[in-house]
Design goal:
alpha/beta; Substrate Binding Domain Of Dnak, Chain:A, Domain 2; Rossmann fold; 6-stranded parallel beta sheet; 20 helices; 46% helix; 12% strand; globular; binds iron/sulfur/oxygen hybrid cluster; binds iron/sulfur cluster
């Protein structure tokens, strides 16, 4: 097997024997085969689209299927086989539709399909053997150019992150045909042997550009459906009674579950990246049983899930291979899967099995609740909330009360080097504000950093899915100060783990943001030359030590 799409990749050299995330070689080959058939579907979709045929459902399918191949989303070989068969069925159905349309319209028959669009499964071989013949390693160029290979992987991995966001927006009824079209275009370019290094750099940055649009769309989808987030205090202690825990990023599935658990005497808790759901006014107003947050970041789920005395639903990444002791109370929805776990299919899953499981389990006892010291955290500092107090922020900067802003955001993970981010936040001087987002915040989210005037020094902007909010805050401040984002007293110190972070990084580079500090390690898929190019054009740099990086950021102020 070959996979190097995430930060956890074995020794920074790619996973070759077994995924450090727990992904088996079999699942990896099925993911490669799925990506291969999606690359073969892409030119067919593009031709159908050019003829004016309706391909929107197929676009949404391609996005969901590609999303499933992201790190820690789906480990179930059967689900990948189903996606592969569906992709091939859709491809053939579309080809037939195109032929019929051309005949009806008396159009001269199209160019022959590229070889990849004619790929057929071999009924005598297992899918995983066929997958090993379509490995992503084969994207290497015939002249073995490591930089073009690196940029192809950067494009594909960024695309995986972007389609995850597009899938969330689609579920809520929001899409942009430009994003859909670009997804197919980029997938089909992966097999174009004629692109130069410059073309690949441009394509990777275009992923960033279209990802910005996708993030905007998702922001619109969330805020128009659930209202603009408002600063909200969220209990970290449970209350007594039956309980359901919802993990992942998907607000829509959380809302469906809240609706189905209305008046059932069950308390719903968020886990991981769903913490910011508490900031949405419509969810809070409609569902008082959405109560608190339980546990910390994804890599601690083995302990958190085992201890939780109720049912658990995982709506997106990051799912870890579950332990036997809690797998019978764990359910998955959407693109998420693991063989042996209960999967609830459909756009509006039926959560009755989850509810029954929660009722069968003990829930939190009054005694346990009584023993706990009350704790809470604040969330909901999305762009609307922060920019609504822009006047206060600007006055505080002008009077010298606020010296600098740090965006300390991104993913968490198991590597020891990630303590850097906790130490960094602890060392941020008292006249500076820390904005944070995504699951990396769980290293410091419950620290009381105090306030500057009425402004909390630590503000949770939201999930990684809310990167649009962080960008809007930076752009809004730049506009208010009448400077470019790079001239603001703002430094970005980012942690990455999986492919959504790759998409967001490409978006920041597309916006021309300089001096981003990235850690805990530099992506294995960036070749030395590509990394040198990013360092030269964007001053992208690896993190060093909290003290040295802080000093360098403040020297810029
Ligand atoms: Fe974290 Fe996982 Fe949200 Fe990622 S839970 S690591 S970038 O999936 O998406 O931040
Ligand atoms: Fe390895 Fe990450 Fe790929 Fe899993 S997703 S196989 S940990 S590189």
């Amino acid at each position: 097997m070959f996979c190097e799409q995430c930060e956890q990749t074995a020794s920074g050299q790619g996973c070759h024997q077994w995924g450090a995330c727990g992904k088996s070689p079999e699942v990896n080959t099925l993911q490669d085969l799925l990506v291969y058939v999606l690359r073969g579907l892409a030119p067919v979709v593009l031709r159908a689209e050019a003829l004016g045929l309706d391909v929107r459902e197929t676009h949404a399918f391609s996005c969901e299927a590609l999303f499933a191949t992201m790190t820690n989303v789906n480990f179930d070989p059967d689900r990948f086989a189903a996606y592969i068969y569906q992709a091939l069925d859709r491809r053939e159905a579309l080809k037939a539709k195109i032929a019929r349309h051309e005949a009806q319209e008396n159009l001269s028959s199209s160019q022959p399909w590229p070889t990849i669009a004619n790929y057929q499964l071999d009924p005598l071989q297992t899918l995983s053997i066929q997958g090993s013949n379509t490995s992503l390693e084969l994207l290497a160029t015939s002249d073995n150019n490591p930089d073009i290979f690196s940029l192809k992987l950067t494009t594909l991995y960024g695309l995986k992150g972007m389609v995850a966001y597009a899938s969330h927006a689609w579920e809520l009824g929001y899409w942009d045909d430009r994003v859909f079209h670009f997804t197919q275009e980029a997938l089909s370019q992966l097999d174009n042997p004629h692109l130069s290094m410059e073309d690949w750099v441009a394509l990777a940055l275009q992923v960033g550009e279209l990802n910005l649009r996708t993030l905007e769309l998702l922001d619109q989808a969330h805020t128009s459906t659930y209202g603009h987030p408002v600063p909200t205090s969220v209990p970290l202690n449970p209350r007594s009674g039956k309980a359901i825990l919802v993990s992942g990023h998907d607000i829509k599935y959380l809302a469906i579950l809240l609706e189905q658990t209305r008046d059932q005497n069950i308390t719903v808790y968020t886990h991981g990246e769903l913490l910011p759901a508490h900031g949405y006014p419509k969810l809070k107003a409609d569902y008082p049983h959405l109560y608190g947050h339980y546990g910390t970041a994804w890599q601690n789920q083995i302990h958190d899930f085992a201890k939780f005395p109720g049912a658990i639903v995982v709506t997106t990444n990051c799912l870890m291979p579950p332990h036997g002791e809690y797998s019978d109370k764990l359910f998955t929805v959407g693109a998420v899967g693991y063989r042996g776990l209960s999967y609830l299919p459909g756009e509006t899953p039926d959560f009755s099995g989850v509810i029954q499981k929660a009722l069968d389990l003990p829930g939190f006892s009054e005694e346990l609740v009584r023993q706990e010291t009350p704790r809470s955290v604040l969330t909901g500092f999305a762009h609307n909330a922060v920019l609504s107090v822009a006047d206060q922020v600007i006055a505080a900067v002008k009077s010298g009360k606020i010296r600098h802003f740090f965006l300390v955001g991104g993913c968490d993970g198991a590597k020891p080097g990630r303590t850097y981010y906790t130490e960094f936040v602890e060392q941020v001087p008292e006249d500076c504000i820390v904005l944070t987002l995504a699951c990396g915040k769980f290293r410091f989210f419950d620290k009381n950093l105090g306030t500057i005037g009425e402004l909390p020094r630590l503000m949770d902007v939201g999930q990684c899915n809310d990167a649009y909010s962080a960008i809007q805050i930076a752009l809004g401040l730049a506009q208010a100060f009448d400077v470019g984002v790079n001239e603001l007293p703002l430094s970005m110190v980012l942690s990455w783990y999986e492919q959504k972070a790759v998409a967001v990084l490409l978006t920041l580079l597309h916006l021309g943001i300089q001096n981003i500090r990235l850690g805990p390690t530099i992506p294995a898929f960036l070749s030395p030359n590509v990394l040198a190019l990013l360092a030269q054009q964007y001053q992208l740099k690896p993190i060093t030590t909290p003290a040295a990086d802080l000093a360098a950021c403040l020297a810029k102020a």
